[in-house]
Amino acid sequence: MIKGLYSTIGFKEEGAELQNVELKVRERRFSSPEVVQLKGRSFLCLTSGSENVAIMLNPEFPPYYKQLPSSTSFSISESEFHALRESRVATRTVLNVLESHVDNSSGVQK
Fold first, then answer.
1. pTM score of the predicted model
2. Is the pLDDT of residue 65 over 50?
């Protein structure tokens, strides 16, 4: 029961932190993805079309991939993905999801 309580509290805290970051960067336009730090957490922020996307890179509680807005499609370049992977900031689950958004040289998502 206690473990479930911590999981619920952690989920809510992470969701609130992601909302806070999304709100802070909502009006910015990113020419390339940027890692933003907040309260010991890392977030990938980027602009896709007319919307910004914020992704928690190191969540500790399910779901292990958190993105706002959740329905916004985006892509990142292969070099941006490799740089993020080499930084060792993102969890394996987040990297797996981000890899599916890598735009290869032909312009088709992997």
1. 0.87
2. yes
